[in-house]
User: Which sequence fits this backbone?
């Protein structure tokens, strides 16, 4: 699993990357009450807002950690958005992307680096 | 927030940090937006049990005659006659111990602030009224009042103390252990009580739609009172996040969002705050506009909206009818009690009837919404204790 400075995680299996938000991000957001997911087939670029997560208090953009095409979204979040808080780095995943350029992964952090990053905040 | 900007702290600030409160800047104060339980759990706890809120950032104060007549009724009439020209409420007609929700108005009938005004019980306190104004507006409100009333009144601020709200169905039972005499008060009554050597100003009021109390405690007694109330297992601390979702469900307007200097009391659905005697006399700021609106000449009114699909519609979201923009959301979010998005906003009167189908635009998408009567969640005020 790799991580971004915007607190997304990405798990790569072949050319498909599963994307979600980190446990740290979920804790900071608070109770998630709504998740807006991208349309299937949408092409996204690194850093582009491609999903929105809403807590009771506010809406926050989720940025694509890599460029790719959306090949799957977590439909279960529509009826159970609280899964993002319960299992942010598992069942609370957001979307699957087909990687456009595997080199996009080079700039991302591993868990040790990410934990150092959030520890320094 | 720049690090050089100094935030004020309430007397309960250290307690919030100990409880794990997540602190944010609000109206110039460093305040807890939530505790580790989180907004949803805090909201639900307040609806089911009793929530404790630090609202010490607000503006409690006493306004007193500089030159008080000996007769107690005359003294009350004199302070009322000074304050009433700035507001639309009937203060002269308040019984001792009565508390009234009213509005400071500008000359165009726009709302400068919404506030509570109370008439004390004690004979020797007649000629004074108790005020509680909003945190973000308190400096301007007090300046406005003093500019208008000059040397005829003295303003004694009490916002260095603690203002603690205890709200929820078990609030009265909790209060019975602290100050049983407070339970004899009905909704919108207030009195001063001696508890643990401190003089507490207790009102039966709040901002959640639940039964409850707001307690003004001097600075030296604030922490001990907060801790004593929190020691009760029926009570949990509640942050500003749930305070906002609770008041939204209760259909209560928030100054700076649902109310501002362009909005009149009638547009805001607060006609009840324009006293009968005041309407007959037409002796309040902006009376020409407000009386015209009361007669039906109105361009917009505040309504409640159930958002029937999609994301919560937040402040600023456009309200659309038949493809035309007809208004904007002024408060909106997710209702924990209804498990659905709700909002308040302003629409033309022709579209204000419950059941009217409208849309709200969130991130460019029109989502179905329906006008519903306020409050979203029924009030549980105790009118006859």
Assistant:
């Amino acid at each position: 699993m790799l991580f971004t400075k915007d607190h997304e995680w990405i798990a790569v299996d072949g050319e498909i990357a599963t994307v979600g938000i980190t446990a740290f991000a979920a804790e900071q957001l608070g109770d998630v009450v709504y998740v807006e997911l991208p349309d299937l087939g949408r092409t996204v670029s690194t850093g582009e807002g491609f999903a929105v997560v809403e807590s009771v208090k506010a809406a926050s953009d989720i940025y694509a950690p890599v460029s790719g095409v959306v090949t799957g979204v977590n439909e279960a979040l529509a009826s159970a958005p609280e899964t993002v808080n319960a299992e942010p780095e598992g069942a609370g995943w957001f979307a699957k992307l087909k990687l456009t350029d595997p080199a996009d992964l080079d700039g991302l952090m591993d868990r040790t680096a990410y934990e150092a990053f959030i520890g320094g905040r | 927030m720049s690090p050089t900007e100094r935030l004020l702290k309430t007397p309960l600030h250290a307690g919030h940090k100990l409880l794990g409160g997540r602190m944010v800047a609000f109206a110039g104060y460093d305040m807890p937006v939530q505790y580790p339980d989180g907004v949803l759990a805090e909201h639900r706890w307040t609806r089911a049990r009793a929530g404790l809120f630090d609202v010490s950032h607000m503006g409690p104060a006493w306004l007193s005659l500089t030159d008080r007549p000996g007769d107690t009724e005359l003294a009350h009439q004199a302070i009322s006659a000074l304050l009433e020209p700035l507001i639309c409420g009937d203060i002269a007609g308040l019984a001792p111990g009565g508390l009234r929700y009213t509005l400071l108005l500008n000359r165009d009938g726009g709302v400068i602030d919404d506030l509570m005004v109370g008439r004390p019980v004690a004979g020797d306190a007649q000629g004074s009224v108790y005020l509680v104004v909003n945190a973000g507006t308190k400096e301007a409100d007090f300046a406005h009042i003093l500019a208008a009333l000059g040397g005829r009144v003295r303003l004694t601020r009490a916002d260095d103390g603690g203002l603690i709200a205890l709200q929820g169905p078990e609030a009265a039972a909790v209060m019975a252990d602290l100050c049983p005499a407070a339970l004899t008060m009905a909704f919108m009554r207030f009195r001063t009580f001696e508890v643990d050597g401190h003089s507490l100003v207790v009102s039966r009021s709040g901002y959640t739609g639940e039964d409850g109390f707001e307690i003004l405690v001097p600075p030296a007694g604030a922490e001990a009172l907060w801790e004593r109330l929190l020691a009760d297992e029926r009570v949990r601390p509640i942050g500003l996040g749930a305070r906002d979702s609770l008041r939204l469900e209760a259909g209560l307007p928030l100054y700076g969002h649902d109310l501002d200097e362009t909005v009149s009391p009638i547009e805001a659905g607060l006609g009840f705050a324009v006293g009968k005697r005041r309407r007959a006399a037409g002796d309040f700021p902006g009376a020409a506009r407000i009386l015209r609106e009361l007669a039906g000449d109105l361009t917009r009114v505040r309504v409640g909206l159930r958002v029937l699909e999609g994301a919560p519609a937040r402040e600023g979201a456009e309200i659309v009818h038949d493809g035309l923009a007809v208004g904007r959301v002024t408060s909106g979010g997710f209702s924990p009690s209804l498990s659905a998005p709700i909002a308040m906003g302003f629409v033309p009167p022709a579209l204000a009837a419950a059941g009217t189908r409208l849309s709200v635009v969130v991130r460019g998408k029109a989502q179905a919404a329906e006008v519903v009567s306020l409050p979203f969640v029924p009030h549980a005020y105790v009118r006859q204790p």
Notes: The first strand of chain A starts at residue 2 and ends at 3. The mean pLDDT of chain A is 95. The radius of gyration of chain A is 13 Å.
